[in-house]
Amino acid sequence: ALNVHYGHHDVQFQGPFPSTFTHQNGQVVIVFDSGNAHLDIRNNNGFEVCCNNFGPSCDEFSTWLAAPIAGHAESEVTLDASACGAHGVKGVRYAWLTSPCHYHDCAVYDSLTTLPAPPFFLDENAGALVG
């Protein structure tokens, strides 16, 4: 409320947010906050990928496969998307469930504010980012 309603732009109200994702050789790299994030990775769960062989676009009716975190750096997460095989990745989503994780047990947090990353959906074809 301080940031949005009262204009206190120094108050951070949201955890790390994805800016881009790339995929190559069975891996997906997601960059958060344009490379300015300070990530705290607490487990390797919560990410899913939609493969190119599952239809023209990714949506709630598509087949989504688990993509565990294989590694991470200060502001990026690398996912194991080998489940897609040679077909490649078309979309990525995170915490896209009604109750994605237990209290303080999601995968991605900001290490400075301890705020969790929000649920999001990245679609390569549409260039869409939904959070």
Report on this structure:
This protein is mainly beta and 131 residues long. The protein has strands at 18-24, 27-32, 39-41, 47-51, 65-66, 69-72, 76-80, 89-94, 108-110, 120-123, 128-130. Strands 5-4-8-10-11 form a five-stranded antiparallel beta sheet, with no helix packed on it. It has a four-stranded antiparallel beta sheet with strand order 1-2-7-6, with no helix packed on it. A hairpin with a 2-residue loop joins strand 1 (18-24) and strand 2 (27-32). The radius of gyration is 15 Å and the shape is globular. The model has no long low-confidence stretch (mean pLDDT 86).
List keywords for this structure.
single chain; 131 residues; mainly beta; 4-stranded antiparallel sheet; 0% helix; 37% strand
**What's the tally of helices?**
0
Number of strands: 11
Please describe the biggest sheet, giving its number of strands, its sense, and whether it closes into a barrel: 5 strands, antiparallel
H and E order: EEEEEEEEEEE
Q: Ranges with pLDDT <50 over ≥5 residues?
A: none
Q: Hey, roughly how much beta strand do the residues contain?
A: 35-45%
Widest β-sheet, arrangement of strands: 5-4-8-10-11
Average pLDDT for all residues: 86
User: What integer value in Å does the Rg equal?
Assistant: 15 Å
Helix content: under 10%
Shape: globular
Structural class: mainly beta
Write the layout of secondary structure elements.
Layout: E1 18-24, E2 27-32, E3 39-41, E4 47-51, E5 65-66, E6 69-72, E7 76-80, E8 89-94, E9 108-110, E10 120-123, E11 128-130
Antiparallel strand pairs: 1-2, 2-7, 3-9, 4-5, 4-8, 6-7, 8-10, 10-11
